[in-house]
């Protein structure tokens, strides 16, 4: 499993939060790899500000406003390396505003949501949203479980 966590300059996340996030998102990526019968998957996780995610949202989705999470899937290209899932970008500013159970829980929720997008899930209708939410919950459950990572 390969997870690259980057925290932009000017974005503050407590070391305990970023360390736990790195471990548990890493476990989610490993659980996803195992479910695909792969040895490894690569994901980049970037924590940024509302200003940065607004630029990305404007440039890539034509929506000139901040959002909580964006996912940039690499597997969609015809010649893509299937082990390279892509990038998840989370606005810490928006996560803080939305957090009802604390910042860590919100960041983990958003990371699992972004990971599901990288895995090909979407939420264009109620059925897709239900399936995506179920997969995200199973990934978070596996991340929190002690012991060797299992497929999720």
Labels describing this entry:
152 residues; 49% helix; 4 strands; alpha/beta; four-stranded mixed β-sheet; Collagenase (Catalytic Domain); globular
Q: Could you provide a short overview of the structure?
A:
The protein has 152 residues and is α/β, with parallel strands linked by helices. 49% of the residues lie in helices and 17% in strands. The protein is built from 5 helices and 4 strands; from the N terminus they run E-H-E-H-E-E-H-H-H.
User: What is the number of helices?
Assistant: 5
> What pattern of helices and strands is seen along the backbone?
EHEHEEHHH
Strand count: 4
CATH topology: Collagenase (Catalytic Domain)
Low-pLDDT stretches: none
Give the terminus-to-terminus CA distance: 14 Å
* CATH architecture term: 3-Layer(aba) Sandwich
β-strand amount: 15-25%
Report on the biggest sheet.
Answer: 4 strands, mixed
């Amino acid at each position: 499993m390969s997870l690259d966590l980057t925290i932009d300059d000017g974005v503050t996340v407590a070391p305990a939060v970023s360390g736990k996030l790195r471990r548990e998102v890493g476990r989610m990526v490993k659980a996803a790899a195992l479910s695909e019968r792969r040895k490894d998957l690569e994901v980049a996780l970037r924590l940024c500000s509302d200003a940065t995610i607004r630029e990305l949202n404007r440039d890539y989705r034509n929506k000139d406003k901040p959002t909580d999470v964006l996912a940039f899937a690499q597997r969609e290209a015809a010649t893509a390396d299937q082990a390279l899932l892509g990038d998840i970008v989370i606005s810490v500013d928006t996560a803080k505003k939305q957090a009802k159970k604390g910042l860590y829980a919100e960041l983990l929720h958003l990371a699992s949501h972004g990971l599901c997008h990288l895995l090909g899930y979407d939420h264009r209708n109620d059925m897709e949203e239900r399936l995506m939410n179920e997969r995200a919950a199973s990934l978070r459950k596996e991340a929190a479980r002690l012991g060797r990572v299992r497929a999720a």
